[in-house]
């Protein structure tokens, strides 16, 4: 009975939300639809020259995909009206730091979490025949709500680790390029073309922003905010101060390279000092019992035999 009530309420809610989203889509102006289509073509190619590289049929298909995404975004935007602005800003920041999550926007990501939270209990109730209790359904819904967030956090951690790993060598390449006579933007473009990974993507994003007219200082601050890496934030702050004070960029880059390597060495030493404490738990509960069994087992068996023989003699 609980399964039928929950399934009926979910289907009614989904139908209402989908109808509202359809109505929002029908009221969209034609130029707004064309904007979504062109944006989808841009996302397909990932490069400006991709608009000419893809045939019109592919562009039309991606345009239809953009319209379908807008149909999903309509109900998601309706849900976002009831969410606090701080939560939406936090979600947007997390998606930016993750470098995107399956190319989802904020509204689509929130809609995905709600969809998983509502559909996971229904799916499992179908598999189990509705034998699970209310607490089981609530726990499954909470798990469906939390899984996308955990995946985003895992992606953020992996991305920050990759940025931190490649940052010292990248700063060294920048130092060599600047001391060879290149400007900072030209050196950054050259280095971004040589390296791969999230740091290269962030540098290319910064260069695109500067070419589109954004101030260099604002673009550098945005780069630091997108990454969330303290070392990269310190690097961008040093570049901004050098630009404001007229200090040599080459000297600043060399100092930053040494500072980043020193911090990474200190971090490695800190992790090495924490290793014995982390090994204490598995040693006490897994290694020491096995060791005691091997060392004391024969002696314990010998003592048991000796006591049994003494008791028999009495």
Question: Can you give keywords for this protein?
Answer:
86% helix; disordered N terminus; 314 residues; Receptor-associated Protein; mainly alpha
Please give a structural write-up.
Among the domains are: 82 residues, no CATH class; 105 residues, Receptor-associated Protein (Up-down Bundle), CATH 1.20.81. Helices cover 86% and strands 0% of the residues. It has 12 helices and no strands. The chain has 314 residues and is mainly α. The radius of gyration is 29 Å and the shape is flat. Helix 1 packs antiparallel against helix 6, helix 2 crosses helix 4 and helix 11 packs antiparallel against helix 12.
Furnish the topology, listing elements before pairings.
Elements: H1 2-26, H2 30-45, H3 50-53, H4 56-80, H5 85-97, H6 106-128, H7 134-179, H8 184-194, H9 198-211, H10 216-227, H11 230-245, H12 249-313
Helix pairs in contact: 1-4, 1-6, 2-4, 4-6, 6-7, 7-8, 7-12, 8-9, 9-10, 10-11, 11-12
Q: What Rg, in angstroms, do the CA atoms define? A: 29 Å
Give the termini separation. 71 Å
Overall CATH architecture of the domain at 160-264: Up-down Bundle
Q: Which regions contain 5 or more consecutive residues with pLDDT less than 50?
A: 1-5, 15-55, 57-62
Strand content: under 5%
Number of strands: 0
Based on secondary structure, the structural category is mainly alpha
Overall helicity: over 70%
CATH third-level topology of the domain at 160-264: Receptor-associated Protein
- SS summary, helix count: 12
What is the arithmetic mean of pLDDT? 76
Shape: flat
CATH class of the domain at 160-264: Mainly Alpha
Largest sheet: none
List the secondary-structure elements in sequence, H or E. Answer: HHHHHHHHHHHH
